[in-house]
């Protein structure tokens, strides 16, 4: 079942074309890594697919009513801003708002989803801490937990592991991969090609606003794509824990 269908999506910002005729589908059970150089259009593609920026073309989620869209997809923007000095517990519970009628108090299901999201992100000891007083990496994990608590079929995450230490980068990607194995889907933009190769079931490479490659990591991360799109050489090796991928030099 398709959770997102994008057809001929194009975006122009400040009289500059950013996306050009982009089309793809995301099916249940996929962890899709969106990769490409800075300025390739990754963030704009995510925002346009969710109906958050003006665009030409079609997106199956962008046309939804706001309430339906909030139950269909959770959005984690690249810019992480926590505006209110609330506890971690309260902030993560905000992810449940799309599932509660106006004025309704959280029920047993809402608390269970929050508990699971906090456990998945290793935040048990932070529940009563004020979110705005946490470090940048800790705040990032809180916002990931909020998205998980939203319990949508699709999660769209723009550079969610940026600023996290290596252990939490790995655990976050493992959480996304598990969600995909359980039947949900994730679109995640990444600059770490090693994490992308190891944890994503599929990679989409964007280059100059167009899809340059789309497929399994082993098929997409080729010598040609590394040279032509990223301008690098890299070391690649399969291991029993998944592929190891390390950029080596600029071409």
UniProtKB/TrEMBL annotation:
Q: Where is the ABC transporter domain?
A: 4-233
* Transmembrane helix as UniProt keyword: no
Alphabetized InterPro entries for the sequence: AAA+_ATPase, ABC_transporter-like_ATP-bd, ABC_transporter-like_CS, P-loop_NTPase
- Matching SUPFAM superfamilies: P-loop containing nucleoside triphosphate hydrolases (SSF52540)
What PROSITE patterns does its record include? ABC_TRANSPORTER_1, ABC_TRANSPORTER_2
GO terms assigned for molecular function: ATP binding; ATP hydrolysis activity
Is this entry keyworded Nucleotide-binding?
A: yes
Domain of life, per UniProt, equals Bacteria
Q: Which UniProt keywords apply?
A: ATP-binding, Nucleotide-binding, Translocase, Transport
Q: Which family does it belong to?
A: Belongs to the ABC transporter superfamily.
Summary of the function given for this chain in its UniProt record: Part of the ABC transporter complex HmuTUV involved in hemin import. Responsible for energy coupling to the transport system.
Stated name of the protein: Iron complex transport system ATP-binding protein
